[in-house]
Amino acid sequence: MFTVGVDLAAEPKKTALATISWHAGGASLDHLQVDVDDETVIDRSRGAGSVGIDCAFGWPIEFVEFLTAHAAGQLPERDESGLDWRRRLAYRHTDRFVRELTGQRPLSVATDRLGLTAMRCAELIDVFARDDEPVDRSGAGRVVEVYPAVALRQWEVVVRGYKTTAALRRRALEKLTARAPWFDVSDEHMRLIERSDDAFDASVSALIARAHYLGLTHAPPPEARSAARVEGWIAVPSTSLDDLLLSGAGDS
User: Fold this and answer.
1) CB count in 10 Å sphere of residue 195
2) What's residue 248's pLDDT?
3) Which are the contacts of 205, defined by CB distance < 8 A and separation ≥ 6?
4) Quick one: CA dihedral 186, 191, 194, 196, positive or negative?
5) In angstroms, what CA-CA distances link 87 with 105, 156, 164, 190, 227?
6) Which InterPro entries does UniProt cross-reference here (predicted)?
7) Please, is 37 exposed, middle or buried when counting C-beta atoms within 10 Å of its C-beta (0-12, 13-18, 19+)?
8) Dihedral through CA 177, CA 220, CA 95, CA 131, nearest 10?
9) Exposed site from 15, 37, 66, 234, fewest CB < 10 Å?
10) What are phi and psi of 134, to 5 degrees?
11) What secondary structure, in 3-state letters, does the chain show?
């Protein structure tokens, strides 16, 4: 079987896609490309065990309700205001869960520089649906939201600033493959990762997709499931890299 990872950007430029093939005792990075359009994402995802997309799948429910009321000129009376209230509007249930679990706060899709990419992701989710692949934003289906930086922290592969230089990306990949010596990366793909942090994040996203395929990520707790189906849910790995080699249906 194979998994797909997508590091999504607001346009095809700087969007990267990776596919990893899984077999008894190992895995290989089979395909890696940058400047990827939606059609390529759909085509490459057909037949994959799981598809991990590095982008928020939705916006905070309370934030959307606030904007809707504001647009109608009907902000309701409330007993709270101030920075704490605005921060609650800015973050999703999954963002707060990740912060409590890992100590790392995801960027806010409502207030940080993620909005344009999230708009493209919403369109991409719609393309999946029109290709007979309705996306459950809570991660109950084949397509799942991922966050490479959080997964790397969970797997103890932390190289600060890897997005900034080729040398740091090589170091990050070397650290990753040292912890997962069964993960085969060709020299050609190594060179592309050195040139592109997007290519590295796409590769990590495909590893997270494997964890999701095996059921080795943190699912939404019961009280957050309804919100997760609207806002999205980040699939954070719950086990080590080596556990990704657990036998899955379809592994050769």
Assistant:
1) 13
2) 66
3) 5, 6, 7, 18, 52, 53, 54, 146, 148
4) negative
5) 12, 29, 29, 39, 17
6) DUF429 (IPR007362)
7) middle
8) 80
9) 37
10) -60, 135
11) CEEEEEECCCCCCCCEEEEEEEECCEEEEEEEEECCCHHHHHHHHCCCCEEEEECCCCCCHHHHHHHHHHHCCCCCCCCCCHHHHHHHHHCCHHHHHHHHHHCCCCCCCCCCCCHHHHHHHHHHHHHHHHCCCCCCCCCCCCEEECCHHHHHHHCCCCCCCCCCCHHHHHHHHHHHHHHCCCEECCHHHHHHHHHCHHHHHHHHHHHHHHHHHCCCECCCCHHHHHHHHHHCCECCECCCHHHHHCCCCCCC
Structure confidence by residue, pLDDT tens digits, 237-246: 999 999 999 8
212-219: long-range pairs with CB below 8 Å, 24+: 212/50, 212/52, 212/139, 212/144, 212/146, 213/1, 213/3, 213/49, 213/50, 213/248, 214/243, 214/244, 214/246, 214/248, 216/243, 216/244, 216/246, 217/139, 217/144, 218/97, 218/101, 219/139
Single pTM value for the model: 0.94
118 in Cβ contact with 11 (< 8 Å): no
